Amino acid sequence: MNRSIVIRALAAVLLTMASLAEAQQPKRIHRIGYLSYGSVESEKSWLTAFQQGLREVGYSEGENIVIELVASLAYPGGNVTGLSDFHAGVVTKRLELLKEIAPSASRVAVLLNPANPTHPLQLKDIQAAAPVFRVTLLSLEVRGPDDIDRAFTTIGKERPGALLVLGDRLFATHQRRLVELAVKSRLPTIYSQRSFVDAGGLMSYGTNFDDLYRRAATYVDKILRGAKAADLPVEQPTRFELLVNLKTAKALGLTIPRSILIRADKVIE
C-alpha cells in the first residue's frame, strides 16, 4: 500500500501501545495512543464508536485501558497500524451516482487538492471511468482557502453540469463554504462524507467512519493480547454509506430517482 496513504490521519486510525503497571493495582492498565489530525469535538462520534468497539471486546476506559489523544504526527510513538479510509473504486461510484441524479450532465467538475497524495490516484480513476458515463472532466485544483472562490469563479465561466468533491481535510474544514457555493451555483454535487450533507450538501457517498473506528478497537485487542503492530496489515473500509438531502434537491430543482432513495442510508427531508 502507498506509504503516503497509510499515514493519512483521516484516512487512518493510528495506534501506539505502551503498558502501565503499578504495584498496588491488581489489574494491568494499558495505555492507548490515539492519533488524529482532527479535534476531540470534531471527531466525537468516531471516538465514541472506537470506545464502543473496545467495550465489545472487553476493555473499559478507566478500568483496564487509558486512551490518550495526540495532536500531530510528531508524537506517534511505538509501532503504527490501523485502518485506512481509502478504497479503490469508491470515487468512480460517486461519479456513477452523480450521473444518476444529473443524467444530462456532459461535463463534470472535480474539486481536488494536489497536495493530497491520494487525489492524483483518484483523478486517474475518474478519468478512466469518464468515457463510460459519457462525460468530460474539468479538474479544479484547490491548495488553500483562497482557491475555493477562484474555483467556483471558473465553474461559473465553464458551466459544468455537476460537481464531484474529493475527500480532504481542507474541504472538510471549509465544508459550509463549499456547500453554499455549490447550491448558489445550482450545481448537483456529491461529496465524500456525510457531514457535507448534514451541512446542506446534496449527496455523499463514502466510508462509514463510525464502523471504521469501531473496527479499530479490534487492533487494540490484538496488540494487547501480544500481536505486533508491524505484523497487522492496514485494512480498508468495508462499509459505505449514501446520504441524500431532499431539501437541497428541491432548492436545486432536482428530482432524486427512487433507485437512489431506496439505497440511501439516510434521507434528509
Short recap of the structure:
By secondary structure, this protein is of the alpha/beta class. It has helices at residues 3-6, 44-56, 90-101, 119-129, 146-158, 169-173, 175-184, 194-198, 209-224, 246-252, 258-261, and strands at 14-20, 29-35, 65-70, 107-112, 136-141, 162-165, 189-191, 203-207, 240-245, 266-268.
- Spans of at least 5 consecutive residues with low confidence: 1-25, 70-77
Major sheet size, sense and barrel closure: 7 strands, mixed
- The oligomeric state of the chains shown is single chain
Rounded to the nearest angstrom, the distance between the terminal CA atoms is 40 Å
* Rg (C-alpha, Å): 20 Å
Large-scale geometry: elongated
Number of helices: 11
- Mean pLDDT equals 82
The CATH superfamily of the largest domain is: Response regulator
Specify the helix fraction band. Answer: 25-40%
CATH architectural label of the largest domain: 3-Layer(aba) Sandwich
| Biggest β-sheet: strands ordered side by side in the sheet | 5-4-6-7-8-9-10
Overall number of structural domains? 2
Number of strands: 10
CATH class of the largest domain: Alpha Beta
The arrangement of helices and strands along the chain is HEEHEHEHEHEHHEHEHEHHE
**Structural class based on helices, strands and sheet pairing:** alpha/beta
Might you state the CATH topology name of the largest domain?
Rossmann fold
Percent strand equals 15-25%
